[in-house]
Recover the amino acids of this structure.
């Protein structure tokens, strides 16, 4: 069986919709040589159709709900909508 590849990222740097596809760049925070704040560096671009993006969003939302229920995350009631 082939070994799975794992990629670590700190988050999403940019996300946009072009050419009928959702594209987002995953970034890592790279330290500055002069001791300044780390800066984001693009590592991987994910490209998927809108329905794949929505399915991914729904999966992430379910995980967020589970983390809230378990007390790992707490809702920020001060966020304005």
């Amino acid at each position: 069986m082939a070994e799975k590849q794992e990629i670590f990222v700190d988050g999403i740097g940019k996300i946009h919709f072009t050419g009928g596809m959702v594209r987002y760049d995953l970034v890592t925070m790279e330290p500055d040589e002069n001791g300044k704040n780390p800066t984001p560096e693009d590592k991987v671009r994910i490209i998927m159709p809108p329905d794949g993006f929505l399915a991914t969003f729904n999966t992430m939302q379910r995980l967020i709900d589970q983390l809230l229920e378990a007390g790992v995350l707490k809702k920020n009631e001060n966020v304005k909508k």
